[in-house]
Amino acid sequence: MFGRRRTKSPQSAGPSIEPLNENEIHWRNSSLDAAAIFAERYAGSRDKPPSLMDLDQCVRAWLADDEARPDINAFVNAVGVAFGAHVARDAGLTWVIATDEHGSDLALHGEHGNVVIYPANAVAKRISTGTTDFLVELHRSMVSGVEERRTQEP
C-alpha cells in the first residue's frame, strides 16, 4: 500500500484530510500507468484507466498467473488506484491523504456527507483472500453509498 506519512493519537475522532502533495500526485499517476500496463497484459485493454470489467479480468488473471506474476503490492496499488479513479469520477470525490489513528493513506474524500473511502485497501482485502469479480459490484455499492450519505446530510 501507499506508505503511511505519520500517525495520530488513538483519541482522534475521525480522519484529518489533506490534499495530495506533488510526490503523492506523481505516485497516484504512476499507479494509473501501472494499471494500464497490467490491463494490457492481462485483459488486452489499452484504456486508461482500465474499465472495471478489465480490472476484474486483471485480478482473475493475476491470481491464476504462475510464479512470474508481478509483486502483489504493485498490483494491488495499481488496481486500487484505477478502481478509485472510477469511484472518484462517478461519485464526485477528490483524492486526498486521510490520517486517522492507524496512520495516513491515500483516500477519496467528499465534503458533502464527509465521505472518506480507501479504494486500494478495499481492493487489497479482497485480492488477499482470492476474491474475484468484485470490482463492478463494489463500485456500484460505493457510489450508491456516497449518494445515500449525501442525501442524509443535513
Defining key terms:
4-stranded antiparallel sheet; alpha+beta; 5 helices; 154 residues; 14% strand; Four Helix Bundle (Hemerythrin (Met), subunit A)
Summarize the helix and strand pattern as letters: EHHHEEEHH
Secondary structure class reads: alpha+beta
- Which value, in Å, is the CA radius of gyration? 16 Å
Whole-Å distance between the termini?
34 Å
CATH architecture: Up-down Bundle
Share in helix: 40-55%
- The CATH class assignment is Mainly Alpha
Which term fits the overall shape? Answer: globular
Count of individual domains? 1
Quantity of strands, as a count: 4
Strand order of the largest sheet: 1-2-3-4
- CATH topology, what is it called? Four Helix Bundle (Hemerythrin (Met), subunit A)
Describe this entry's structure for a reader:
Helix 1 crosses helix 3 (72-91) and helix 3 (72-91) packs across helix 4. The protein has one domain (17-152): Four Helix Bundle (Hemerythrin (Met), subunit A). It has helices spanning 22-43, 52-64, 72-91, 119-128, 135-152; strands spanning 16-19, 94-100, 103-110, 115-117. It is globular, with a radius of gyration of 16 Å. Residues 1-12 have low confidence and may be disordered. With 154 residues, the protein is of the alpha+beta class.
